[in-house]
Structures are given as C-alpha cells and as structure tokens.
Design brief:
The chain is an alpha+beta fold and about 375 residues long. The protein is built from nine helices and eleven strands. The strands form three sheets. The protein has a four-stranded mixed sheet with strand order 1-6-7-8. It is flat and about 60 Å long.
Length: about 375
Amino acid sequence: MNKYFFTSEAVTEGHPDKICDLISDTILDEALKNDSNSKMAIEATIKDDLIFIYGEENTKAKLDYEIIAKNVLKKIGYEEDFKVLTKISKQSSEISNAVEKENICAGDQGIMFGYATNESEEYMPIAITFANKLALRLTTARKNKEIIGILPDGKTQVTVEYQNGIPKRIDTIIIACQHKENIDNEYLKSSIVEKVIKKVIPEKMLDDKTNIYINTSGSFIKGGPFADSGTTGRKIVCDTYGGYCPVGGGALSSKDPSKVDRTGAYYARFVCKNIVAHGYCDKCLLQVSYAIGKEEPISLFIDTFGTNKISIEEIKKYIDNNFSFKVQNMIDELNLKRPIYKSVSCYGHFGRNDLDLSWEKIKNVELKR
C-alpha cells in the first residue's frame, strides 16, 4: 500500500496487568541477587485489595513474597492495604533434570520472535516506541507532581501514517489517565498535551490533522486493580513490538534465564538489531524454536520483508559466524543471570535506550565474504 496506518498501545506501571509483571520480575531479581542459579516461574494475579502469588521455584534465596509485593505497590503509588496469598511449589525434578546438564538446556519447548527496523533510532517500530514513551512520561509527570491529581493507572495508543513504508506523521494519539475525583477536565487535558505528548512526540510528526483524545470515557476515577483484574504475562504485545510482528508462545516476565521464552526472545532481538544496524536489510524478523532439554534450537526462520541488501544465505552466514542460539551461550553472552528484569517489566523490553541492556548492544562484527 502506498499509504496505510498502524496502531500500537502501551500501559503504565499502575495498570493491573503491569502491576503483576512488576511483582513477578521483582521477585525474580531478588532471587537472582542472592542466587544467580535461581530457577523461577512465579506469577501474580491481583483484584481489588487481594494479590495471589503462585508458581514454581528452585532457589537458595529466602524470599518474603508478601513484603516484595506490597513494596512494589507502594513504589507504584498505591497506598491501600493489600492482602497477599501465596501458593509456591518446588520446580519439577523432571524439568530440573532436563535443564541442568553439562551446559544449560532449554527449560521448555516453544517459539520466540525477534524483530528490528531502521525506521527509528531505537531500531523499533515507531508506534510502539512512542506509545511506551508516552506511558513512561505519564508516570514520570505523576511522580514528579508535574500534573496534579493524576493516579497510577493509564493507557496510551499511537496511530502512525506510513507512506511507501516510511512513517510520515502521527495521525492519532489516545491517552487514558486515571485521576482524582475533583480534577478539572480541561486542566487535565491541557497538562497532558503540554507535559506528556509534546515532551515525547517530535514536533515534525504532529500537524493540524493529528487527532488527540484524552479520557474519551469522560472520567477515569476508579482504576488499577479496583476497576479491573490483572495477571502476569497478559501484555506481551506491549512488551515486544506493538503488533508489528508475531509474538511467541509465552510471556517474558517472571521467567529466569533458563526459560527460552525470555532468553530466546532477547537473543533474537539482539541478532535482528545487529543485522539491521549493519545495513544488511531495513527490517528483520527471526523465529527460533526449542525443545525442552535440548541445547540448540530446533529451527531458525529469517524474513527481511524484501528489504535485504545482501542475500538471505549471506545473512544466515553472518548469524552462523557471529552468534549462537545455544541456551548456555545466550545466557553467557547477554549476561542474563543478573537482577535486571524489573527495569524492563514496564514500558517495553526492547528499544530501551534509557537502559543499558545487553540485548540492545551492536557488535562490531561484519559479514566476512
């Protein structure tokens, strides 16, 4: 199509699903801080003032799940008194025996995707990049008291107009922002435009035809877990590429590095970004698949959407010569057995130039012809 529109959405850390992602990844970080070999798959569900934490673990770390969860909620901005229930069991010995071999093997079967595009400096699709930046900026404005009366829950949505495959302008921005009861609607809208939208979206991407909608329901007083339930792993499109490419079979948050749902997705992004950054194509998608107990992937699929400057065979050669999708290598090369995960549990796991992430690095290696 000569002209088309694409939309991506994001949510703030006060959204009930993101609360649960942040709780899960904070638990993982606490485990890795005390035992880098921790095997964790701890999830959370929240509704009203009740939090249920459940899953499997195999760690030497002593974790107080209730305190961790309550501290997360306080840091987000929820002051209510929450009740925490837990149901944690030991990781299955069958899984443990399949993973813990001479080299670490995949902790589950599954498919993962990586993606990169040169349409933004983050090598990310521009709609999800702006949606996540708007959500983060909304939270920053709240915590810094730049906008008075706004509360933790919120959602953003950005529609980009493309012409000949190139993003030309922002067609629509939608922001839903929880707020206190007596806040003036005009103050809220003007403040969000000035202190959120104009701080994030470049002026050249906005024009007099750009639609901006704020709190289209009229008011947004009741929010967070008191308006909706939340569960770990329900925002994987926000976490990844905003719908520009397929998502894998599993979520990212809560899982330790032996879980290829997470590690394979990070490494696939790492490889895609390097392929695009070195100019071998404008867009790159990788699919990788694993079987539990196997060290190497079962399959690897490459798609450049016809934008490749060299042959797919040469791109495959570049991958083979410079990268390894073996589980142990992915963990070692990206240094994943560290407490780094709560920092990416909200506002996107990829394209985060505000964080020092190993899977966002560009290796100084090129194709040897």
